[in-house]
Every structure is written in structure tokens, then in C-alpha cells.
């Protein structure tokens, strides 16, 4: 071991993060070592038990503070309760919220259907979505899964399952980079895809 153990441990931990190679990991660790602004302690405080302090919203399965039943969006009476936007991940909620162009509610599936990876309907928050769809206040469900093979397959499956309900089922307009992630789409592209959404044919 070239580095003293405490420093090496930090480098090893950084290296496990996505997109961080050995060089970047060392650079980050040395940056924290030299830093005089208490960043290391602030990071440590933020990381301490942060997972335990979070929970899933019991309505839409977005992330919320532990102990709260609903997330901020579900609890907000100004949001349009007749619209549900279905996304794969809570990060997608963040992307759509950043556009400022959506006033409805969400439903986070926590993944997409993928036979290759063994992800079936029961592994996603699909049953709870179908339960929500029974509410006659719901007028439209926007399928905003990623424009990837898995995302498209999930949207198709959901549109079939939702076919029997008295509501509109729409899909985000094309124009999002195919194979990409909502998360990486810029705000204007996302807004265009949202406003140009089309009814699903099934
Ligand atoms: Zn919620």
C-alpha cells in the first residue's frame, strides 16, 4: 500500500462510484485532505444515515423523508390530481420538475420491464398504478418511461393493462434521444416531448 490506510480507504470508496476511475478517486481524496473549508466533515454528516432518513411515498413511490406518508408533490393540493406521469426512476421526476412545465402527479415504477435481466411486472410498482387508475378523478396517464427498448416495452405493456380504464393513455412524443435516459434530456426537449405527447395505439 503506497498511501496511508485512512487515505487509501477513502480513495477505494470513491473508486466504487460510477464514472470515477482510480485517478479521479485519488484527486478527490487529496482535495479533501488539503481542503480547509470543512468539506470532509460536511460530506460525512450528509452521508451519515442518509438512506435511513428517506422513504418512499405511499402513493407515487417517489422519494420522501422517512416518517412521512406522502411526498411533497402528492401532498400538494395545487397539483392536478387528474394527471399521472409514469416514470422509471425518481431521478426522472427531478428532470420533469426542473422543466417547470408539468403540474400533474407522478408514479415511479422503480425500473422497467426487462426479460433479459429477469425484471417482470411484479418487480415494478405496476399493481399500485393500476389501483390508482381505478380512481375516477384520473383523466390521463402519461407514459414517460425512457425511449429505450425496455422503456418502450414497459409503456406498451402498461397501455394494454390500462386499456380497460376510462382514461387517456399517452406516451411522450418522439424527439428524445433513442436509447437515452429522460435524466439526460435537456429541459426544452423534455418540455416538447411532454406537450407533444400522443395517444397510445393498442
Ligand atoms: Zn408521492
Automatic annotation (TrEMBL):
Source species, domain of life: Bacteria
Xref: SUPFAM superfamilies: Recombination protein RecR
Keywords: DNA damage, DNA recombination, DNA repair, Metal-binding, Zinc, Zinc-finger
InterPro entries linked: DNA_Rcmb_RecR, Rcmb_RecR, Rcmb_RecR_Znf, TOPRIM_dom, TOPRIM_RecR
Entry keyword DNA damage: yes
Coiled-coil annotated spans: none
Domain called Toprim: residue spans: 82-177
One GO biological process term: DNA recombination
GO molecular-function terms, A-Z: DNA binding; zinc ion binding
Matches recorded under SMART domains: TOPRIM
Entry keyword DNA damage: yes
Matches recorded under Gene3D superfamilies: 3.30.60.80, 3.40.1360.10, 6.10.250.240, RecR Domain 1 (1.10.8.420)
Family that this chain belongs to: Belongs to the RecR family.
Summary of the function given for this chain in its UniProt record: May play a role in DNA repair. It seems to be involved in an RecBC-independent recombinational process of DNA repair. It may act with RecF and RecO.
Name assigned to this protein: Recombination protein RecR
Species name: Candidatus Desulfolinea nitratireducens
Gene that specifies this protein: recR
